[in-house]
Amino acid sequence: MASSEGEIKVAVFDLNGTFYKKSSKDEFYKFIVTKSPKRIGYYFQMLYYKALKEMHQIRKTEFKENFFNYLDDILPDQVEAYAKEFWEEEYPANFNEELKSRFDKLKEEGTHIYCATGGLELYVKPLFDMYTINGFAGTRVHYEKGTYKVIGRACKDEEKLDRIKAHFDGKPYRIVEAYSDSKEAILDKAEKAFLIKDDKIIPYR
User: Fold this and answer.
1) I need a surface site. Which of 9, 31, 107, 176 has the fewest CB within 10 A?
2) Are 174 and 191 in contact (CB under 8 A)?
3) Confidence (pTM)
4) CA-to-CA distance for 19 and 179, rounded, in angstroms?
5) At the top level of CATH, which class does the domain 8-203 belong to?
6) CB-side exposure of 44: number of CA atoms within 13 Å?
7) Do residues 180 and 187 touch, judged by C-beta distance below 8 A?
């Protein structure tokens, strides 16, 4: 349902640390290790790439490609099957109940609900088969020679805004609400912006 000005009203949220209380990239790794214990060896490699990222020695897209090396040699269909099982264990117990209630109310009012996350679409998609929203954008990857390569840029910062714009494909829209656990571009573009701190929703500005 569009607003009186003909614009689609949109509420945008980040996933990790926001709607999902934890970090999906870390928790999904732990889950994969339960399926393939030998992949525990990737843990130290992941710490190395995290350190490089924190020291700004590696681009966000490059970080994503290397952090998710723990998925090497697992075919996309199998990753999706694991992800479905993972989210069935996590949802709804480890999600922000107050935020879910807010999204449900906005849905009833006709506001579009959109998730923009840095997580890989490959493992995020099964979540939104369970909790339906109007659209989502994550980091896109393709499987090549046993590993996952990022398509374009990681879904972070301005890339999130670009993906939202592409989703609406020329239709007029405005971001009426945005939610994240840290300062980012989607908050600055929203009419009302909120941070999630200790599972509580607090005004950003």
Assistant:
1) 107
2) yes
3) 0.91
4) 8
5) alpha beta
6) 2
7) yes
Distance CA 131, CA 136 (A): 12
**Quick one: tokens of 152?**
């374009």
Q: Render each residue's pLDDT in the chain as its tens digit; 205 residues.
A: 444 568 999 999 999 999 999 999 999 999 999 999 999 988 788 787 788 888 888 888 887 888 899 999 999 999 999 999 999 999 999 999 999 999 999 999 999 999 999 999 999 999 999 999 999 999 999 999 999 999 999 999 999 999 999 999 999 999 999 999 999 999 999 999 999 999 999 999 8
d(CA 199, CA 108): 23
Domain boundaries defined on the chain: 8-203
